[in-house]
Amino acid sequence: MMTTTRAWQFREIGGPEQLELVDHELPPPGPGEARVRFEAIGLNRADLLELAGRYFGPPPSPSFLGQEAVGVITELGPAVEGEAPAGGYEPAVGDRVGLMVGRIDHRGMGTYRTAGIYPQRTLLPVPETLSAAEGAGFWLATLTAVAGLHAGGLTPETAEGKKLLVTAASSGVGVVTLQAARTMGAKTIAATTSSNKAERLKVLADHVVVASTPEAMVERVAEITGRTGVDLAFDPIGFAYAPALMQTAAQDGHVVFYGLLAGMEAPLDLRTMIFKDLGVHGFTVHRIQRDAALLDEVVGITLGLAERGGLRPVIADSYPFERAPEALEAMARNEHFGKIVLELAQR
Ligand SMILES: NC(=O)c1ccc[n+]([C@@H]2O[C@H](COP(=O)([O-])OP(=O)(O)OC[C@H]3O[C@@H](n4cnc5c(N)ncnc54)[C@H](OP(=O)(O)O)[C@@H]3O)[C@@H](O)[C@H]2O)c1
Fold first, then answer.
1. Does residue 172 have its Cβ closer than 6 Å to ligand 1?
2. Euclidean distance between CA atoms 91 and 321, whole angstroms
3. Is it true that 3-138+313-343 and 141-286 share their CATH fold?
4. pLDDT at position 313, please?
5. Does the pLDDT value for residue 98 go beyond 80?
6. 3-state secondary structure 16-61
7. CATH number for the 3-138+313-343 domain, one of 3.40.50.2300, 1.10.260.100, 3.90.180.10, 3.30.70.1660?
8. For the residues 29-47, what does the mean pLDDT come to?
9. Does domain 141-286 have CATH number 3.90.180.10?
10. Residues 6 or more apart from 215 whose CB is under 8 A from it?
């Protein structure tokens, strides 16, 4: 039987004003698929990039949007032999689940909708201790944080006493990166460009730096670390912050770049990079899709940190589902602290 859902769709690239709310008919889940009825949807910077045609190139028209949500499995299609579930999780009807970034068709299905059909291997359990809004912001940011720290050599085994610098610290990913690293035992430094947000970051990090300029950030991090530098800098900004981050790094330290907030290109400080023997890494969370053992490890670490109470997305704002364009406009203003989510009225 077909199910009618409501979904946000766009036909032209641009901004949130391009979104229109439409009815979308869903067939029953096919082999290896599940239907999930959503409670809440997580917004990501990538959604704005996708709307602008700057994410994976120009999207088809029409296109759906979104990569993150939490909901309940309402129907499962037949199992497919040989298809491994994500992180060992076996989905069942009634389970509360989130979606794994990189495995869903964000253009053909997306998550800005009341319900959707997804491959079962994209589903991951969401801790019951999290509210709908927190659950919506859980898996994408935490997998990015935990796998990204792992790429820079920071794991529960290695983290004790290591110094970590997180830039754009008030972002959805930044907040859970600080939580994850702290729970693992690392010493955390949060950098934000906003002095308004610095106060709120104090509860999440050991030190807070107002990085009004890259130079100011380098100087403050040097003071905090007694000029020894950080073992890992984790950054989604790039550009002028790139050489500055190399200057903040310790001898044999690492810098992980995972976003393009300030543009596609960045100057490199080769001298510092070479003389400090730095590990400089590009990272996307999609890496875990190519390595089943890494995926299992990262999902295991994430669930372990959540069980210890160390991972709980901070919700900046929650909007009703019907106000998605307004929520995206708020994200573009960069005034938020943590995750912006959409919530669906539950019948
Ligand atoms: N590689 C991956 O796999 C992966 C996965 C998920 C997300 N990402 C990337 O991670 C980044 C953060 O995503 P999100 O959804 O967490 O973002 P978000 O919640 O919208 O946070 C954005 C924050 O970044 C800072 N910022 C924005 N533009 C800036 C600029 N030009 N210069 C300096 N700081 C700037 C601001 O923080 P302050 O006010 O604190 O400075 C802003 O509030 C995005 O670039 C996204 O594409 C990458």
1. yes
2. 26
3. yes
4. 93
5. yes
6. HHHEEEEEEEECCCCCCEEEEEEEEEECCHHHHHHHCCCCCCCCCC
7. 3.90.180.10
8. 96
9. yes
10. 244
Tokens of 332: 């573009």
- Is the distance from CB of 234 to CB of 167 less than 8 angstroms? yes
CA distances from 231 to 2, 157, 259, 281 (A): 53, 15, 19, 13
Asked whether the CA dihedral 235, 241, 243, 249 is positive or negative, the reply is negative
Structure tokens at 121: 């291997």
How far apart (Å, rounded) are the C-alpha atoms in residues 284 and 100? Answer: 13
Distance 296 CA to ligand 1 centre (A): 26
Q: How far is the CA of 258 from the centre of ligand 1 (A)?
A: 9
C-alpha 344/C-alpha 347 separation (Å) is 9
Nearest protein CA to atom 13 of ligand 1, as residue: 45
CB of 262 closer than 6 angstroms to any ligand 1 atom: yes
Q: Give the pLDDT of residue 347.
A: 63
pLDDT digits (tens, 9 = 90+) for 207-239: 999 999 999 999 999 999 999 999 999 999 999
Residue 157's nearest CA partner among 29, 304, 315, 312 is: 304
Q: Where along the chain do its domains lie?
A: 3-138+313-343, 141-286
Computed on alpha carbons and rounded to an integer, the radius of gyration of the chain in Å comes to 20
